[in-house]
Amino acid sequence: MSQNSGQDPWSKPGQSNEQKPENSSNNGWNLNQNRGKQDQSPPDIEEIFNNLLKKLGGGKKGGQNNGSSNNPPSIPFNWSKALPIAVALGAIVWGASGFYTIKEAERGVVLRFGELHSIVQPGLNWKPTFVDKVLPVNVEQVKELKTQGAMLTQDENMVKVEMTVQYRVQDPAKYRFSVTNADDSLNQATDSALRYVIGHMTMNDILTTGRAVVRENTWKTLNEIIKPYDMGLDVIDVNFQSARPPEEVKDAFDDAIKAQEDEQRFIREAEAYAREREPIARGDAQRILEEATAYKDRIVLDAKGEVERLQRLLPEFKAAPDLLRERLYIQTMEKVMANTPKIMLDGNNGNNLTVLPLEQIMGKRTESKVQSAVDSMPVLTQPENQSNNSKNNTVEPIRQGRFN
């Protein structure tokens, strides 16, 4: 207390008692004003940084204050301890930045220092940053490629053709590195294959019946073209969209196509009619064959029965030939005359035969009987009113017509 009693409380540290502020009368006001400024001023960045360096291992070398300087003492930085911490933090950030995800429909092509290294499967994976590079490739998406153009046919006609090709990536590595651009290479190969096929077919076949042939031949030719390039692509389908002639001759080709369509329609109608009539004809032929077979069997059986009957009559014929001959004649004439309506009468002198048309006689007689039966049917008349019905309860039949 005795040492500090002689010292001015408003002086800086290290100053004697004789050094006082110039305005001693305003010390109280200046003190309060300085405190308010210190409370409102932001924290000193340099002081915070020095404190951080102290915690990292920097030491304070005392005894060097010079008594008149207001700056804090210099603190040396300890790099031997800060460097491992910085390296550890950098390793953590580097390792965390290497995690990546491959989708379910994709495969990852890994490049190590620009060279193909491996193919990764879907899921969470890790790569060394700045060392590996991953290129995702979709292997399940079906892509579509369209090509069209005016092409020259075998018979030197121009035809406008449109075709689409559906394909999918089969090998991601080959798709990325076998050629510069696999999609563009496939487009050029499709155009070449289509022009080759169209150039070996006539325009009539392309526009009418050869559409399926164009599709199949283009698919086959396209696979042969892209096979040496080994682009890692799988051609799924080739669709032949349309083929049309130039506008100048389009009407004539439309008429030709319509005529061919009519021809095919008539052919199909004829085939349908043939399929309809063929079973009927086969049935009629089978019926006729069966009737012929039955007739043959009946005639054979009748002949056998007649032979057997004559064999039984043979002993009687040997015993009395004239009598048996007369009997057989009479039986035969009975059978013959039973099937004819005519009656033959002997004349008086025995030389003339009179034929009576019995069928006409019987027919006229039948007609007369029917007409007489119709004429004899009673006809009832309706009463005029209820009073007449009450008086006459019975109605006499009116007979119309007469016998002819």
Model description:
- There is one protein chain.
- The protein has 404 residues and is of the alpha+beta class.
- 50% of the residues lie in helices and 18% in strands.
- The chain is built from twelve helices and ten strands.
- The strands form four sheets. The protein has a three-stranded antiparallel beta sheet with strand order 3-2-5. It has a three-stranded antiparallel beta sheet with strand order 6-7-8.
- It is elongated.
- The model is unreliable at 1-29, 58-69 and 379-404 (pLDDT under 50).
What is this structure, in a nutshell?
This protein is α+β, with helices and mostly antiparallel strands and 404 residues long.
Quickly list its features:
404 residues, alpha+beta, three-stranded antiparallel β-sheet, 10 strands, 50% helix, disordered N terminus
Number of helices: 12
Oligomeric form: single chain
Percentage of residues in helical conformation = 40-55%
Low-confidence stretches: 1-29, 58-69, 379-404
Classification by helices and strands: alpha+beta
Topology diagram in text:
Layout: H1 2-5, H2 27-40, H3 45-55, H4 79-96, E1 99-102, E2 106-112, E3 115-120, E4 123-126, E5 132-138, E6 143-152, E7 158-169, H5 172-177, H6 182-199, H7 203-207, H8 211-226, E8 233-244, H9 250-319, H10 321-338, E9 342-346, E10 353-357, H11 358-375, H12 386-391
Antiparallel strand pairs: 1-4, 2-3, 2-5, 6-7, 7-8, 9-10
